[in-house]
Amino acid sequence: MAFISMRNVNKIYQSGEDAVTALNSVNLEIEKGEFIAIVGPSGSGKSTLLHLLGGLDTPSSGEIIVDGKKLSLLNDKKLSKYRNQEVGFIFQEFHLHPSLNLVENVEIPLFFSKMKKKTKTLLRKKAEDILDLMGLKNRLKHRPSEISGGQKQRVAIARALINNPKIILADEPTGNLDSQTGEKIIHLLKNIHKEKGTTMLIVTHDHEIAKQADKIIEIKDGHLLRHDHFNAFISKSLNIKHISALTKTPHT
Amino acid sequence: MLRHLALKNLASRPWQTILTASGIAIGITALTLMLSLSEGLKKAVLRDLNTNGAMTQLTVQEKPRDTVMSIFPIGERNLIDQTILNKIRQLEHVQAVYPEMIFTKVSSLEISWLNQKLQTDAMIFGVPYDFIADEYNGSRASWENSALPYPALISTKIMDIYNLTIASAIGLPTLSKNNLRSIDIKILPGQSTFFPSSSPSATAIPARITGFSSKTSLVGITVPLNAVRQMNTAYDPQYTDRFIRLYVQIDNAANIETVKSKIRQMGLDAISPLAEIQTISANMTILEIGLGMVGLIILIVAGLMIASTFLAAVRERKDEIGLFRALGATKSDIIKIFLYEAAILGLGGGATGILIAIITALSTNQLILNFIPALSFKPNSLFSYNPAMFMLILVFSVILSMLFAFIPAKLAAQLNPLEALTRE
């Protein structure tokens, strides 16, 4: 069985009498250690896919299995543990806590893990080490408001990595950064992927980033198309109308 | 660790934190002051009762013939005779009986005090030496011989009344137990201003006030028992060996009720200061509850303020709650963070409130006690408090804060993390 597997997943948002289908009968398999770019126009369901995989949202129907765990069967405690231990989130908006300094921001996931029983010094050391790896050794006590966008995203990456997750879910991590800084962030994520073998799913609008991914998942109107490499994506994406026929499913 | 987050959260909103903690502090100040005031009043009242009437004492008198409990018409009142006195002396658990005799004619006193002559109506009471031994400065012989001038004691309350009224009105020096040497007076037997008909022609009897007693009657002077016996023999012989009251000393407070019922079976009235203390204690407890309720209401208002602050905080902190949930916080972690914050506010506000209450109590004590004249029953402090009470109030403050923060905390935990993270 694949490391991540989505079977016939639908996600419908109900807004009054209107129903918006964000994901439509999605079937997807991702192997451990893959570096995947998720592309598609705005509102196509890219972020929804990421949130479902990260256990932040539940599908309207279908099932999601990650590393043998059926997410729909996990209670709040187990799902929280899954988010804490197995997933690292990176957001476009960084979502750093404004009243905590950088090292404290990185420590947050530790507070909710079994590590919280360890001594404060030990947790601090772990957070400092990882910030050091991100090149932020001299900024440990700074507040998020005192650093640049690129630095903020590096703090967010450090926070995502602190519990050694198996999966990194990044929602447009370079969306709020200039192209040069964005490139550095992607470089950093690639290095982490290479060194740790972490499975990475990155939502992006940027074809330059998509180019660096092992595989590309294209989403349009809730339908999903998997391309094995960037060139395939470029050649096939024109035929997006036939997506469902081309989608790789667990049964194929 | 979650405590650390809670502290950081509070520190990041200093004004909100200070205002909420101030609300709790005001509530706790009110509660502490109310409780310590009622405790203080209770202590002051009970102290007065304890010193005046021993817990093992009964006061026995004949039942009045009619419902008018006047102290003046002696003729309307049955007086206790020697036979009854002896019977009571022989009762089990009775250690001593001190009879009090009254001169049945309402008299007046002529007091010479610093070249002023004052005349006032007064009753003359007589008691044995043993009854006033602890408050009488002279010897047993000087009391029991009843040589002229008769030694006399006045009620400490008379001293207070004199100090408050006469002394301050006409500029006479105030009296205290320490500065009183002796005041010469003349007893004018039966020469009453209010009961002129009872006035026989009589010669003045010299007496000397030598001290105060907390046990003696307010409406006259207390002289040796023999002195009153002699006066009654001379002016109203039928009452020579009759007593207005008997003070009965019991061996143990536990036996008071037994003795009391035996005396009542003899057709006499028996009153125990213990019962009086219990009644007053009960009333004081009611007062205490009342004052406590006022404090509690103020505290509940403060609690509602906590609830409203936290409800607002849940709305404001959606981002933070969503982020924490995304990073692995369980619902109970979110509740814990909010409850820690509430506990810190309760602890800080509570401690500040107690401190303010102590300062207020100390300064109010100073202010009020400076304005209350130096009465013999003046309490040392209007407020009474102790560390245990503070600890209890502090724990209460923390628990109450957490209680009021619980529903907002629960709402926060129910928030959809996604809604918080994805809102623009």
What does this protein look like?
The complex is a heterodimer of chains A (252) and B (424). Chain A has 252 residues and is α/β, with parallel strands linked by helices. Chain A is built from nine helices and ten strands. Chain A has helices at residues 46-53, 76-85, 102-111, 120-133, 149-161, 179-196, 207-211, 230-236, 243-246, and strands spanning 4-15, 18-30, 35-39, 61-66, 69-70, 87-90, 167-171, 199-203, 215-220, 223-227. Chain A has a six-stranded mixed sheet, sandwiched between helices. Chain A has a four-stranded antiparallel sheet with strand order 2-1-4-5, with helices on one face. In chain A, α3 packs parallel to α5 (149-161) and α5 packs parallel to α6 (179-196). Chain B is 54% helix and 17% strand. In chain B, the strands form two sheets. Chain B has a six-stranded mixed β-barrel. In chain B, α1 (2-12) crosses α11. The chains are: A alpha/beta (252), B alpha+beta (424).
Largest sheet of chain A: 6 strands, mixed
Please compute the radius of gyration of chain B using only Cα atoms: 33 Å
The number of helices of chain B is 13
Unreliably modeled segments of chain B? 67-73
Low-confidence stretches of chain A: 238-252
Q: Estimate the mean pLDDT confidence of chain B.
A: 81
Instruction: Determine the oligomeric state from the structure.
Output: heterodimer
Our Rg estimate of chain A from Cα atoms comes to: 18 Å
Structural class of chain B: alpha+beta
CA-to-CA gap between the ends of chain B? 30 Å
Counted beta strands of chain A = 10
